[in-house]
Amino acid sequence: MGDDATQKIVEASEALERRQQLRELNLAPERPGEADLKKLDSSMKRNSALIRKLRTLSEESRAALLDDIAKTNQSKYVSEVVGAIAEAPLKLRDVPAALAVCSALHQRYADFAKELVSALAKLCSSTDEDKAGVVRKRAVLRLLVELLLVGLYSAHSVLLGIVKQLVAATDFRGDPEGAQAALSLLTALAKAGREELLGMPPALPVALAPESLPSGETGSSGPEAEAAEAFRAAVGRYEAALAGRYSLPPDVQAALRSAVERCFEGACSALTAAHAALQATEAENARVLNSRGDLPEDMAAAYEAQRKGFEGLQRAAAGLAEVLDRPLPELKQAVTRMAAAAEEPGAEGEQQTQQVFEDEETRAFYESLVDLRAVVPAVLLGDKAKDDPGAGGEGAAEAADSGGGGAPAAVAGAGQANGPQGSAAGTGIKQEGQGSEDTPEGKGGEEQREPSQLDLLLARLPGCVSKELADELAVNFCYQQTKGARKRLARALAAELPLGALALLPYYARITATLAQVFPDIAQAVSSHLESEFATLARSKDATARTLEPRVRNMRYVAELAKFRLFPPGTAFSMLKSLLDDFSGHNIDAACAMVETAGRFFYRLPETSTRMANFLEVMMKLRNARNLDARQSSLVDSAYFAVKSADRAAMRKQRPPIHEYIRYLVYERLPLGQVTKVLKKLRRLPWAQHERHLVKTLLRASYKGRYSQIPHIASLAAGLARYHPSLGVALVDEVLESIEAGLEMPDAGLYQRRVAAVRLLGELYNYKLVNSHVVFATLHLLLAYGHEAGTPPEVTRKLDPPANYFRIRLVCGLLGVCGQYFTRGAARRKLDRFLPYLQRYLLAKPPLPLDVEFDVQDLWDHLKISPPQYETYEAACAAVAEIEAAEAAAAASGLEAIEEEDEEEEAEGPEDGGSDAGSDGDDDEEEDGDADEEEEGPEGGSEGEEDEEDVRMLRPALAAPVEVDEDFEREFSQLMLDFQGRGARQAPGGPGGAAVAAPPAGPGPAPAAPASHGGGSGEAGSGAGGPGEAVAFKVMMKRGGREDRSRELRIPLSAGMAAHLRQKEEREAAEKAELKRLVLEANKRDQQEQQEALRAAQLARRAAPGARGYYGRGGGGGRSGGNLF
């Protein structure tokens, strides 16, 4: 940094020295004599060629012209040469070349300077006010100032007369356009000689010495001391060059400065009046728009002309303010916003702002912007009166054009820096300071580092996906902002959006709105680009998909800027009107995109509400009149109802009060973890009437509610299924049907519903409403649906696209919920069998994305298993085929595995299973039990004994409490007493009454029986019963699916029922033994008869060879059968 600053000061010093040398040469020229001129070429042909070149004087022809001037004699053609230079279409970048040519001619011909100055002054006094004429006059004024500074003439009255004439022409009321042109020319003249002509204080090319430079007061040595010494030497050289430069006399400087300041004050007054008039015009236009719904063309044209005139005046005044170090008057409202809305006082205005946006978060996004002036140092933001749109335009172009000149031009404006943001006009040297002067045309060597930092900042734009990131980028840009950087940022915000990244538009608009607080030129550049892009797309007749995305993006961007109050609503409505005028093709998509994005905002804004409502009606009429396809019709409907959503809210579905109560319990109370209370209240419902609605409500709550409440739903369903088993069956059926329906219609909009259904199925397994067979059948269905043999390939691609990995997510989700319980028994064998199928499916897909691959790895870690690894898809297919072949062979041999034996073992699997979602809530309920009872009030007294039931369905329990049926207990006790009395009257082992089967299933516990004391086996057929033997009975206590429970009852043999059962078993055993004996004898007799018949047949064939053979043994079989049956 120190070397750069020193080099910059050295270059400025050299420029001042070269200007002084050129002035000395021009003041005392050594002109060639007549003899020397006669030696040069003075032919008309050569001089005519030179004059033609002078008429096209430019920086490119500079070297050739200087060479021709040195070789030719123009003493007889001085007037023609002057006329050619005066006729040349000079621009600011051509001034250095013109200065060098004029100096060379002045040093050869004495009468050249007088004629040239007179011709140029006459040219500046002309009344040519077109754009080309103003640009040429600006360059001529710059050349006149440069000629005065390098000593080509000394009559300062020439410039004083031109200044007085320009000041007199600034009649902002009578001739606004002429006044703006005169103000622009006066600004160019003042910038060219700011210090020499106006007497403004000089400044160093750099604002301050680099902080890295030591003071150099001590006798230290080394690179730092040498750098400090070089810097001090450069500063001393620069100050000496400044002291020796030429300046106008103080009285002339005061007169020129007074005239320029008087013109500036008039421009400020005119600017304030023009702003007020523009606001009044905007208010009138807004009133007409609200009343008519459209703005007449003449009013729109008048407003546009007035706006352009105001912006031109603002640019010119800002340029002159920069030269004079004076601020512009503060304008109350930016002209880029419509001023039609009446200012609402206090709370009423805040209420209106609240009503414009849907909620507080949305309002904060569009209204609460970062105050850059509070978080960024003011020195980095600069004086906006100097650097706003007015500082651009002609003034910026002058500074840029003057930067490419040669030695004379570099000398012309040296030392004219203006404080920390000094103007570099005419010097080609930019002031470093805060870096506020950085034009794209004149970047120096030290600015080469800034694009790399700016590129890093701009590269972060596509990553601004939140409000915080957008605000952070806007603040960081303020630390690197320059005029060129602002242009690059505006171009990146407007024209370099990533394709398809429509979600970034709100954040890009927020960045623009945040920076527009201190840099309005960024917002103006973005808005101008969007307007020009819209016009270009409107002229394009390309109706292909290639232009659809740019049209939609353009209109959405306009809508987002309008919501930030950066884009004029009138212009936005004009765009929408042009789209509705040609309501076809891509114009429908573009119009719907704008209405859907900002239509609600315009509809709620008072000043645009009427017009937005009119446009909505027109759009719906066009929809009904035109023959639109289904997609376009749905787009129009979606946009219309997005704006008028309040009308749809009035059409809310009316439900019975009991259904509303069910929804309240499931959607509001259940997510709080109040499973027990919800269970109690739902049990009081008329079950037969509302069970179906409750099942549907539970299923909908799984995907409409929070994902974390699904365990609560499963817990509630398990609790209700204990009392109403049909609910559990119906809910499982609905869940399985929902999963299969999602496979049939793989729409991305149903992904959330499908994930919720899979999660619910896993939780239902954890709460033992389904077994592992259902879970694994669903897993296989997820992998195999659509891939069955005979399915057409196009159907398979539609149901399961190759690049769609959602089924893998479903499998991971289901196993992640309940897979930790598949650790042993039949469930583990089913899991091991399923893993090869899953590996085959994974290998059939393209390489998995990182997020899907991480999900699969997390599943393996969660299950704590090492799945089989297959290198290729063929290896996985071979493993699956081997499994299926082994199962087929086992089925054919009748040795297939019987999984029912492991059901009891499987049931013990999730003993800690299920989600703990309900436990926390239930514990909270117990802690707040008293408060809840007081809250329920009179309802608590009517609950009776039902409230005393401690129903806790936190998770499936192995030993759930069993209800007691008093009727059953009474009858069973009476039955036991009867049998015991009959046994007491009969001898033990004597004949008993009729056989008594096991009592029917009942929920109550059986009465206790004395245990066996004789050490017998307890079986009925274990031998004669002693006094201590007992017979074991199994009494069914409850029946219903997997909740069947039985209790063992041991009855002593002294009881009549046990004795009767023992006698019955002995009779049955004797009958079985007799039947066995008869069967064995019949088989033996049948075999003997068959052998005798066979021998008789053989003897008959030998005795009579031609006789018929013996074909059967019907008689023997018949007798055998008769004896058997």
If you had to describe this structure to a student in words, what would you say it looks like?
It is built from 50 helices and 2 strands. The chain has 1125 residues and is mainly alpha-helical. It has a two-stranded antiparallel ribbon. Helix 34 packs across helix 36. The longest helix has 48 residues, at 1056-1103. It starts with a helix and ends with a helix.
Overall geometry: elongated
Mean pLDDT: 74
Q: Helix count, per DSSP?
A: 50
Radius of gyration: 50 Å
Strand content: under 5%
Largest sheet, spatial ordering of strands: 1-2
Tell me the number of strands.
2
User: In whole angstroms, how far apart are the ends?
Assistant: 120 Å
Instruction: Indicate the structural class.
Output: mainly alpha
Q: What can be said about the biggest beta sheet? A: 2 strands, antiparallel
Helix share bin: 55-70%
Unreliable runs: 207-219, 334-354, 383-450, 900-909, 911-961, 981-1027, 1106-1125
Characteristic key phrases:
single chain; 1125 residues; mainly alpha; two-stranded antiparallel sheet; 50 helices; 2 strands; 63% helix; elongated; disordered C terminus
